[in-house]
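Late entry, evening session. Most of the bench is empty. Finally got around to the prediction I had been postponing all week. Sequence below, unchanged from the version circulated by S.P.
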Amino acid sequence: MNAPVDLAARRAALIAALAPLLPAHALLHQAEQTTPYECDGLTAYRQRPLAVALPETEAQVAAVLKACHRLGVPVVARGAGTGLSGGAMPHEAGLTLALAKFNRVLSLDPLSRTARVQCGVRNLAISEAAATHGLYYAPDPSSQIACTIGGNIAENSGGVHCLKYGLTLHNVLRLRGFTAEGEPIEFGSEALDAAGLDLLALVVGSEGMLAVITEVTVKLVPQPQLARCIMASFDDVRKAGDAVAAIIAAGIIPAGLEMMDKPMTAAVEDFVHAGYDLDAEAILLCESDGTPEEVAEEVAKMEAVLQASGATRCQVSENEAQRLKFWSGRKNAFPASGRISPDYMCMDSTIPRKHLATILLDIQQMEKKYGLRCANVFHAGDGNLHPLILFDANDPDQLHRCEQFGAEILERSVALGGTVTGEHGVGVEKLNSMCVQFSTEEREQMLALKRAFDPAGTLNPGKQIPSLSRCAEYGRMHVKRGLLAFPELERF
């Protein structure tokens, strides 16, 4: 068992080491200064760090990392704090490395359709900078007005248009940053290939456990000439789920394909007044973009599939303002839910598209089991679920039931052939459920990769990959061929 850490002594040593490296205003350690950093968007779990560093230059980032490595102090990198899985929750004996001041667009090349930006640049700011060239950055998470590209890299974020244009991984060319020891490191290339092993895909989605990223080169795509959105209503969730699968099976890849159930539709309609059908058990938003001719043809095909699948109503946006209005509800699903419940926990798992209706019906039964409401919004086209479990965090029993509810959704997703995460990361929220999806051997491979990049284990420790003892305590270790791994371990 690890010896207890004298936090006061460690804080004093950390402050003494960092004070010469940073301006006084860039090093926070008083309780009232560090409290705003105690959690990310997963507010149910909170922890104040020993201190918060806000470097302004890459030289300062390197110096801070070297000092923390020398002291053995954990480092948790943080962007805008909009993450929903606790990936940026501080370590009680560590430093939070806040990179919000790295907020410059360094260069933009309309010929190569690329932008080189610092990690603290907001997702939407990239598109705003590229707009004068008729370009934009495609991944568009709902928090794009606030979330940073560095955080998008950490979680491999998606968004409503990721079905056609891909996740963050598919829109990034090159990353620059520093190792846990403060040494510079680079992944990917702005050329068509990277020299040596191409580890870019390994780092994107690694939740800050392998390196601290400070600079990103992203791809830009041309703004479409036209975009139109179909809002389709269904009187049965199974019909809506089957319609999603039918659209993809017809060879159509919409720019966006989203699904909301009746409780979510009611919440967002009251919030944005988008004209949603409040009688529908589920609605689909199906978007087409491209040239006017391409859009007209694709919209006609999608309408035919939707009507054949049992849609009770199909409305096509008549202009750009109406299209944006249709999407405003989907984009505001999370804040709208905040108006109808003191708290909510947004889950994030992925299942095969053919099981969308199955999981929705299962969630309805879980609502009765746990005595909590759940509003559902899906990136339906790629099977990425976002059930929002509504609860009151001031009631410990409700929080406990919410955690159990969320775990059952994740584990049911695995049973249906899916995964416990989609675009929000594992963080601390899904650690237990990782024990269900991955075997001991698979998790050990993940830990081996972690050790290759960070031998001392100081970058964002305790996130994403559960320990063997944790899985044993959880009691749901992944078992292959009926063999219980490590039978000598005590099961709690």
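Two things to note before I forget:
Confidence is low (pLDDT under 50) at residues 478-492.
Residues 226 and 289 are 6 Å apart (CA to CA).
Will write this up properly tomorrow.
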